Amino acid sequence: MALSSIVESRTEIELLGEAASGDQALVLAERKRPSLIICDLEIRGFLRGTELLRMLKALPWRPQVIVFSGSRDSNEVVSALMSGADSFVHKGIAIPELLRAIERTIQGEKVLLLEGESAPKDALDHVHRKYFMTEREAEVLLLLLRRFSNEEIAEELTLARQTVKNHVSRVFRKVGVTNRRELRCAIGDTALTARGRYRPQSVRMAS
Asked: In this protein, which residues make up the domain named HTH luxR-type (predicted)?
């Protein structure tokens, strides 16, 4: 069963459209203004991949974006999170887990669900374990990877600018870097596995 049919028949989400290319996805999103977009980064078209993801996340109403991928490339998970994805879900997971991941994303959680896992996993878990960060530090880290400035992080997390500055310093120290460029390079080497065959899909938009 197609993903769009599953979402429509088994949730209360209203499907607003489906795009076969990245270019079409951006045009459709601007016209329909969906609150949730489910996107395959390997969609056809000139506009695709993390460039498409960044442009979708830059839309004025800030839609939530779930990357739905079957890629064998382990770096795609990190790249998606660095480019602003709210959640990353592997195509090989069971339908009930997919639906729970969508629901949790709508509720504002960041979900990372890889092939073979029986339940959604918080996208910040691997950061906690690898670098021994607090939940707040991990949130700051993901926003840094998405190229947020300190001022934008303060606004996003409702924190004072000095508090954000302190968190950023601790993040740099725990990862072992001194600036944002080094940080993106270091986190890009994080070992995450996402096995399975890739099958091109389209972009779904929902309200």
From this structure: 126-191
